[in-house]
Backbone:
């Protein structure tokens, strides 16, 4: 049985989506662990809700850093 170009493309898409889901789950868990264990005294979500721009920037930088680490380790 021969795999066509469309079949190969769909297979590559499914593999990429699988990697994306795994990366998202690992990044979210890592962010949760960093938030709960390293920054115990700071509630970033409450600070962001209050309008603290510095907390939201810091939290987003942590998320970007975790995403970069996870994607580089998966690839």
Residues:
């Amino acid at each position: 049985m021969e795999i066509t170009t469309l079949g190969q493309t769909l297979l590559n898409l499914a593999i990429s989506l699988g990697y994306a889901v795994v990366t998202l789950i690992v990044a979210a868990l890592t962010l949760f662990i960093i938030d709960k264990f390293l920054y115990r005294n700071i509630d970033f979500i409450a600070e962001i809700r209050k309008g603290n721009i510095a907390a939201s920037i810091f939290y987003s930088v942590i998320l970007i850093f975790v995403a970069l680490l996870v994607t580089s380790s998966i690839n």
The radius of gyration is 18 Å. The CA atoms of residues 31 and 63 lie 6 Å apart. Residues 5-38 form the longest helix (34 residues).
